[in-house]
Amino acid sequence: MAPPSSLAVLCILLAIFSFYESNAQLSANFYSTTCSNVSSIVQNVIQQALQSDSRIGASLIRLHFHDCFVNGCDASLLLDNNATANIVSEKDAAPNANSVRGFDVVDNIKSAVESSCPGVVSCADILALAAEASVSLAGGPSWNVSLGRRDSRTANQGGANTSIPSPVEGLSNITAKFSAVGLNVTDLVALSGAHTFGRAQCRVFSARLNNFNGTGNPDPTLNTTYLANLRQICPQNGSATALANLDPTTSDSFDNNYFANLQSNQGLLQSDQELFSTPGAATVSIVNTFSSNQNTFFQSFVQSMINMGNISPLTGTNGEIRLKESIEAKVLTKWFFFFLKQRLVGQISKFCYERIS
């Protein structure tokens, strides 16, 4: 019997690949045979970035959050404007413009992963892994990240404008936005606990300091000593982009001090303080529980991160594994990646039946 042609072998491999991909679901072991060291690669790049930017961990977890709330965890947030592909970037949406950051570190992670495992790991999974590594490196919990997401080919700027919770929204609106993506009140409080590290620009909360809701007075829920400190950082007519610590006590550590801050009326953002200061809200007792028991907070936070990471992922043959233009990618067989990107089995089969000239 004559040995099979290279084209026939390729078709067989593609058939196996298509079956595997169409039945794929998120799993902590998704890359166990294709990129088993991906978690350590991600962590190493973030460790290096932290040497020059102490708030990068908080920025990376925020990227994952803002990505997942718009059409699910699909890395659509990372796409730039592209008229040819009809992409209007989510980066320019109101909640993201001049606010979200860390894209350079994500690029560095992607380059490092591509060097080790070309064409395998999605950008969406990199965002999920970066969020976990950022929390762990700041002294918070670690967990096995479910993997196997694929990347969106499109962005949804309109969805970013309407779906991402705002720091100046009331609790009822924010609760509704969490509910819209399948997250409950415990998820809301636990994920808000990520504000235990990182910074916020003055423009995000300055209205609370002097003219809350048009009253001409500060937010009455603000601790007066804390208010005075914030006015030093963010004076009237001062820089709108000056930074204040989200947690005034342990600004770069992941712990449960955020919830103690809320109890003493030292929540930086309106959306933070309303978790504790809204009369009769279900969130109040959860804040008290997390403040009194860090382990309970950590356990709930991990589960809520898993819940958020499960929001409408693209799996199987949906979406793509986004690639950077790199030497490693170019080395791989161009036809294999062409077939890989086809969404319909019929498109793959057509080329299996035709000789490539």
TrEMBL record:
Pfam families, per the entry: peroxidase
Site positions (Transition state stabilizer): 62
Subcellular location(s) of the protein: Secreted
Claim: Metal-binding is one of the keywords in the record: yes
Cofactor binding description: Binds 2 calcium ions per subunit. Binds 1 heme b (iron(II)-protoporphyrin IX) group per subunit.
Keywords attached to this entry: Calcium, Disulfide bond, Glycoprotein, Heme, Hydrogen peroxide, Iron, Metal-binding, Oxidoreductase, Peroxidase, Secreted, Signal
Residues that, per the record, bind heme b: 195
Signal peptide segment: 1-24
Active site: 66
Cystine pairs: 35-117, 68-73, 202-234
Matching InterPro entries: Haem_peroxidase, Haem_peroxidase_sf, Peroxidase_pln, Peroxidases_AS, Peroxidases_heam-ligand_BS, Secretory_peroxidase
Obligatory cofactor(s): Ca(2+); heme b
Binding site for Ca(2+) 1: 67, 70, 72, 74, 76, 90
Enzyme class, broadest EC rank: oxidoreductase
This protein's GO CC annotations: extracellular region; plant-type cell wall
CDD domains cross-referenced by the UniProt entry: secretory_peroxidase (cd00693)
Amino acids binding Ca(2+) 2: 196, 247, 250, 255
EC numbers: 1.11.1.7
Family of this protein: Belongs to the peroxidase family. Classical plant (class III) peroxidase subfamily. Belongs to the peroxidase family. Ascorbate peroxidase subfamily.
Protein name: Peroxidase
UniProt source species: Nicotiana tabacum (Common tobacco)
Taxonomic placement: Eukaryota, Viridiplantae, Streptophyta, Embryophyta, Tracheophyta
Gene name, Swiss-Prot/TrEMBL: LOC107776863
